[in-house]
Structure formats: structure tokens, C-alpha cells
Amino acid sequence: MRVLGIDCGTEFTGYGVVEQFNDRDLAYVACGTIKLSPKRAMAERLNQVYETLRAVIAEFQPGMVAIEEVFYAVNAKSALKLGQVRGVAMLAASSCGLVVAEYAPLSIKSAVVGYGKAEKSQVQQMVTALLRLNAPPESPDAADALAIAICHLHTWATLQRQGAAAR
């Protein structure tokens, strides 16, 4: 199974593609950061997120998309802008026929680091180790996106095992 993880932000939106094979091994496929200029109109930035994510989906063909839930924002205006980016990311996935799973930040950190209040640097280190990368992803947003994809793969594998055990 191949999953696209998306870490939405109003200035930087990270994406990461991870694949899990039958033997439960995780494999890095790709990651990157969509840099959004605050000088551009919000509609242009949202279009950039939409178009870039659709291109990533077309290139890497994930079977599912996982995205981080909104956890808090400094103010209402920031929360609204972040919500717009999340909505566009979900639309990009949905318009490509993909199901979107959402995860709380604590769940993502717990799945990857084992501790829900882990620091960003700890998430980067664990993503690097779990995917056997030579170096951490250059962007913390891309590392977070990879963590979101890993969280979904771990959660999906657990649900599959539970479903098989219930039969």
C-alpha cells in the first residue's frame, strides 16, 4: 500500500509518499515542500497547493491520502487560512478518487515516536530511522508529512490484523 501524507500549512505544505509491503517493511518513495509566498493572493496560493498535490498524486499514484487534523491556531484568522489549505488538499485527493484519513497530531507522534508530545526533531529522527534514510528530510514539513503517512500505514495494518482476527 502506498500512502501520501500531507502536512498543511499556510506558508509551507509538506508532502511525503511512503509504501508498505506485505512484510511490513516501510519504503520511502518521495517527499517535498510546497512553498507558498505570503505576497501572493490566498486564492493563488490555494491553487498552487491544489495543482502541486494533483501532480504529486499523478506521479506517485498513492492508494490513500492521510492528513493532519487541525489542532490549534494562534488566532481565528490563522485557523481559517489553515482550514482553507486543508480543504484544498482534501479536494485534490478526493478529485483524484482517493479516500482521505485524518489523524490528530498526538496520534501521529505516538505512532512514529511512541510519545504524543515528541519534539519535531524527534519526529525527524524517527522518520529517518524508520525509512532508513541517509539523512533527515531537508524540510521539517516534509518529515511531518512522511510521519503522517507512516501513522496511517501503522493504523491501517493494525485495523487489518484486528479485522482478520475477528473473522
Describe the model:
The protein is of the alpha/beta class and 167 residues long. It has one domain (2-166): Nucleotidyltransferase, domain 5 (2-Layer Sandwich), CATH 3.30.420. The protein is 51% helix and 20% strand. The protein contains five helices and five strands, in the order βββαβαβααα. It has a five-stranded mixed beta sheet. Helix 3 (105-112) crosses helix 5 and helix 4 (120-130) packs across helix 5 (140-166). It is globular. The protein starts with a strand and ends with a helix. 37% of the residues are buried.
Which descriptors apply to this entry?
167 residues; single chain; 5-stranded mixed β-sheet; Nucleotidyltransferase, domain 5; 5 strands; globular; alpha/beta
Give the N-to-C terminal Cα separation: 22 Å
Largest sheet descriptor: 5 strands, mixed
Number of strands: 5
Which term fits the overall shape?
globular
CATH class: Alpha Beta
- Order of SSEs, N→C? EEEHEHEHHH
Question: What's the tally of helices?
Answer: 5
Write out the CATH superfamily name. Ribonuclease H-like superfamily/Ribonuclease H
Short description:
By secondary structure, the protein is of the alpha/beta class. The protein contains five helices and five strands, in the order βββαβαβααα. The chain has a single domain, classed as Ribonuclease H-like superfamily/Ribonuclease H (Nucleotidyltransferase, domain 5, 2-Layer Sandwich), CATH 3.30.420.10.
